[in-house]
Fold:
Amino acid sequence: MNTTRRSLLKGVGGVLTLPLLESLSFAAPSDAEVPIRFLVVGNPFGAHPEHFFPTDFGKDFTISPTLQSLDWLKDRMTVISHTDHGMVSGHGREISFLSGVLPTDAQAFPEKNMSIDQLFARHVGSQVRYSSVGAALEAGIRMSWTANGVEKLPITDPQKLFNHLFLNLSPEQKSVRRDMLDRNGSILDTVGSQFSGLLNNSSKTDRDRIDQFQTSIRELEHSLADRKTWLDRDKPSFDISGHFAESEMTIANRYDAIFDMIAYAFETGLTRVASIEFPSELKYTDIDGVNRSYHGCTHNGKADDTVAELVAIESFQVSRLSRCLKKLDSIKEPNSDGTMLDHTIVLFGSGMGYGGTHSNRNLPIMVAGGGFKHGGHVDARDTSGKNMPLCNLYVALMQRFGIERDKFNTSTGRFDLQHG
Structure:
C-alpha cells in the first residue's frame, strides 16, 4: 500500500499505519474507489428454525428471537428463507456452506469446491497484505476451501491472530524470511520448467492434473512475490490488552477480541476478506442458562429447556456479530456518505438447516450491509415451491464485490439483491 492511499506516522521504533482519513482529502479515494469488504460468520449446525426465521415476510418483518440483537439493523439486512444446496440431509454436508459442492463431487464444477470467500480473496490478490483472514476459537467447521480443494484452517487463538495481523518481525526475522522466500521462489522456477516434455505424452486426465498443478505453482509464485513486497511494510498498531484481563477470559470477550481485530484489519486495509467460525465442540457454558454442549443442545427432542439453551447459544453468536456490525457502522468511509458497514458485505449462516433433524434444507441465511437494497424477510422459493440454490445468492454477492460473472457452481440464476 503506497503513501498516496495511506498516511504514515513515523516514530521511534517503526512506522504506524493509519486508516484512510477524510482530512487527507488529497490521499483519500473517491466514493467509486471505496473498497468492498466481505465478512462471513458461520456455524456448523444451523439454527432452530422457529426462533431464527421471522414469522412474516417483507421489509417490515417482525424480528425473530434469535436475531433480536440485530433489530437496530432491520432496514439494512435480508433474512432469506428456503435456500439449500440440493443435497440429501445428514452430517457431513454442512461443509458445503460457502461452495455448494462437496469435495467428493468437486471435479464436476468449474470452481471445484472453492468457497466464495476464497474466490473473493483470489480476486483481491496482492492489493492487501492478507488476501483473507480466518479465525475461530477452535477448528472443525470446515467452511473455507481453496481453489485446489484444500481446507483453509482458521487461526484459533486470539493472541496468535493478533501476532499474525499486527506484530512486526525484527530485522533479523525479516532477513531469514526473505532468504526463505528467495529459496522457495527459485525451487518453483526450476520445477515449473519441467512440464513441457510431460504434456506431449500425457492423457487428457493427466494433462488436466498437470494444468491444475501448474496453476497452483503460479499462484504460489505470485504469493511468494507478494510476501516479499509486504515484508518491509510495518503493520498497523492494535491495543489488545483490554480484551485479555485474566478474570474476564469469557467466550464473549475472546470472540469480541477476534471481531475487533477483523474490524480493525478492514479499517487499516490489511485485508478485505474475513471468515469467523463458531465450531461444533466449543463450550458455551459461561453463557447464562447454558449447561449443555452446543452439539448436545441440537439433539433436544423438542424439550423446552434444551431448546432454550440452544436458542441462547445461537442468539449469543448473532449478538457478537451485531456488536461487530455496530463498530463497522460507526466508522465513516472517507469521501463517502456511507459507513464501513455500507461497504462491507456481511453473510451469516450455515450449511446445515437444523441440527436437531440433521436437515440440510431451509438454511438459516442473513445478509447485511454491503450497500444493498435490502428486502427484510424474503421467501426464496420459486412458483412451484422449490427452494432456491444458495449459490444464486453468491452470484449477487460476487457481482457486488466486483467479480462480473453470472454463475457460481450450482447456481441457476441470480438472487434479486440489488446494489443501492
